[in-house]
Design goal:
Chain B: Pfam families: BPD_transp_1. Chain B: It is a multi-pass membrane protein. The complex is a heterodimer. By secondary structure, chain A is an all-alpha fold. Helices cover 77% and strands 0% of the residues of chain A. Chain A is built from 15 helices and no strands. Chain A is globular. Chain B has two domains: 68 residues, no CATH class; 248 residues, MetI-like (MetI-like fold, Orthogonal Bundle). Chain B has 15 helices and four strands. In chain B, a hairpin with a 4-residue loop joins β1 and β2. Chain B is flat. The chains are: A mainly alpha, B mainly alpha. Chains A and B meet through α1, α3, α6, α7 and α8 of A and α2, α4, α5, α6 and α7 of B.
């Protein structure tokens, strides 16, 4: 529902000059401060983006450039930092680990979350309210609080320094958000569809596989993207679970790299920008869904 | 066919949510056979429920609930992480927390971050959202750009800002070039300043999320209300104060809730920029930092677990109070009755 409100915001931005007579009234308050609005918007955007640009541009400079003139443009542009990072086995190894962990966590969260959300949304039984409350309350249990015992549980399972030791808890901690986003989605599927499927001889499980999964795809995509970005950025759990550099994910890699090469600021900046690039690209492609999903989750 | 699915022919009552498994076939059978089929249907339904919800519930209990319960258990022991805990100390760890000046300090910092986040980000986000909600060009681009800091991981934000805020870093250099050299400072190590530096970084990272949220909230207010108010001669500021803000209140309340929960568990940024030891001298250490410093770094797992329990209880109490008294109208009781809609 809020995905549509988010959409309407951008779609109305896409056609700002639609020549409707009624618009005249609506535009009245805008007359008051259009240049001012643009000015504030630019200032705001500048404040948000400048540090990111600094990190990216810093990777194109040399250390001596950064030392003598910390806040300046590359002069001349140097590509060796980025080239060195892109050639390094460490970076690509950590990149691959991050991808594996994020994909596996996302797929796991979506599959388990979809199954349990289907039960909560479309079956009637005594404990379903309790089941929903259990997951909803999970939103209040941040990973940080449980990290020490979680570490011990993972250790007892023999999954220390193993990517599964990160993936499995991430799936578990991703479930609350998934359930809260997906349950309304699944509830919104009209009963008539289920009845029609039943008349055609489909069991409820058949209905789940053949109708529910395709119909809930928008919600699933939203949940999947959120799960992916959360996993991509997760720091605490890998910090506890993964010890050897070969198993590091990118956040750990960034930290290790920046303490290992603390004198080579330019290379640290190059490494950092390459590490944030995937999340940024991912985000700009799926921006509408992420925003819709977040606001949707928040607004229930 | 009059015996449609979901209608119990015996009572003629429309049973909205009761099991409909095999309803059409059941309706055609004589009563006793129908009851048997319904029992079979119910057993089948139970099996389906178990199969579909089992894996998620087991995962959730094993890796979310169980560790928290475990933390509560370890909190009663003096334990250094080797072998099973044996040195039962009862509530001693908790008594220690009450008298531990270091804990009081991190509690104070966390509380400060919590309050300052609300006070700084809230009004700023509302004002920015009101401004950006006007019909200006390129709003979707704006939305992507202001959201970027939120998407970037805390580690990267911390690393980048850490470099920029060093005493010989970009921020001080920029101030120098702008002729504002007198503003140069030890942003990270000055213990009077560091918490404000942290607040600035937090604001930078999370304000985009708040603004986006408020914008979505503003969009759900029907245009007709503004038009009606304009026709009645209300000024721009009157409209904002009397119509927009009250209707935006649910969004603001939910944002505030998320912000509070986020502040209570603040960890990554501080850990990356200051590290657990410098953070305590710089005055930016949070509860989560202290917990990790005690548990993982100092090996006092029992005491660390007790701190985790205290953090958890604080979060829980705040969440319950907030949900009971503030959010009740907005969430339709997501935690208490959301499934009964």
């Amino acid at each position: 529902m809020s995905a549509t409100t988010a959409d309407s915001w951008s779609s109305s931005a896409a056609e700002p000059k639609a020549p409707t007579g009624r618009r005249g009234h609506r535009d009245k308050p805008q007359k008051w401060g259009s240049p001012f609005t643009y000015f504030v918007a630019l200032l705001f955007i500048g404040a948000c983006v400048a540090p990111v640009i600094y990190i990216v541009l810093g990777g194109f400079r040399t250390n001596s450039q950064i030392t003598t003139n910390p806040a300046a443009l590359p002069q001349p542009w140097v590509f060796s930092n980025y080239a060195a990072v892109l050639r390094s086995v460490t970076f690509w190894g950590e990149f691959a680990n991050s991808v594996i962990v994020a994909l596996a966590s996302t797929v796991g969260t979506v599959i388990l979350g979809l199954m349990v959300s289907f039960v909560i949304a479309r079956y009637d039984f005594k404990l379903k309210g309790a089941m929903y409350s259990l997951f909803a309350a999970g939103l209040m249990f941040p990973l940080v609080i449980a990290i020490t015992p979680l570490y011990i549980v993972v250790k007892d399972l023999g999954l220390l320094d193993n990517l599964f030791g990160v993936i499995i808890p991430q799936i578990a901690f991703g479930l609350p958000m998934t359930v809260i986003i997906l349950v309304p989605f699944l509830k919104a599927i009209p009963n008539e569809l289920e009845e029609a499927a039943a008349i055609d001889g489909a069991s409820r499980l058949g209905f789940f596989v053949r109708m529910v999964i395709p119909l809930s795809l928008p919600g699933v995509v939203t949940v999947g993207i959120l799960g992916f970005v959360n996993s991509w950025n997760n720091y605490v759990l890998p910090l506890y679970i993964l010890n050897s550099q070969a198993n590091f994910t990118l956040p750990l890699g960034v930290q290790a790299f920046s303490s290992q090469y603390s004198v080579d600021t330019a290379k640290v900046l190059a490494f950092t920008s390459l590490a944030m690039l995937p999340a940024l690209i991912f985000f700009s492609v799926f921006e509408r869904r992420i925003v819709g999903g977040l606001t949707g989750a928040v607004k229930g | 066919m009059s015996d449609t699915l979901g209608t119990d022919p015996a009572t003629g009552r429309q049973s909205q949510g009761t099991p409909r498994v095999g309803g059409a076939a059941v309706a055609a059978l004589p009563t006793s056979a129908r009851a048997a089929a319904r029992r079979r249907g119910r057993a089948k339904m139970r099996l389906e429920i178990a199969l579909l919800s089992g894996p998620a519930i087991i995962m959730f209990l094993a890796f979310v609930i169980f560790p928290i319960a475990l933390a509560a258990y370890y909190g009663f022991y003096r334990w250094h992480g080797y072998g099973p805990p044996t040195d039962w100390v009862g509530l001693n760890n908790y008594k220690l927390i009450l008298t531990d000046p270091a804990f009081h300090e991190v509690l104070w910092h966390t509380g400060l971050v919590l309050v300052l986040s609300l006070v700084i980000q809230g009004p700023l986000a509302v004002v920015l959202a009101l401004l950006l909600n006007q019909k200006i060009r390129g709003r979707s681009v704006i939305r992507v750009l202001i959201f970027a800091p939120y998407i970037i991981s805390e580690v990267i934000v911390g690393t980048g800002w850490g470099l920029m805020l060093q005493s010989s870093g970009a921020v001080n250099d920029l101030l120098h070039h702008l002729g504002l050299g007198f503003l140069q400072a030890e942003w990270l190590s000055n213990s009077k300043l560091a918490i404000w530096t942290l607040m600035a970084i937090i604001t930078w990272k999370y304000i985009g999320f708040a603004v986006i949220l408020m914008l979505a909230g503003l969009q759900s207010i029907p245009d007709e209300l503004f038009e009606a108010a304009q026709i009645d001669g209300a000024s721009y500021w009157q409209i904002q104060r009397r119509i927009t803000l009250p209707l935006l209140a649910p969004t603001i309340r939910i944002w505030a809730f998320l912000s509070i929960i986020g502040s209570l568990q603040l960890f990554d940024l501080v850990y990356i920029i200051w590290g657990p030891y410098v953070a305590s001298t710089a005055g930016t250490s949070t509860m989560a930092i202290y917990m990790v410093a005690q548990g993982r770094n100092a090996g006092n797992y029992g005491y660390g677990s007790a701190i985790a329990v205290v953090m958890f209880l604080i979060s829980l109490v705040v969440a319950l109070i907030y949900q009971r008294f503030v959010l009740r109208r907005d969430l339709q009781g997501a935690v208490t009755e959301g499934a009964n809609r």
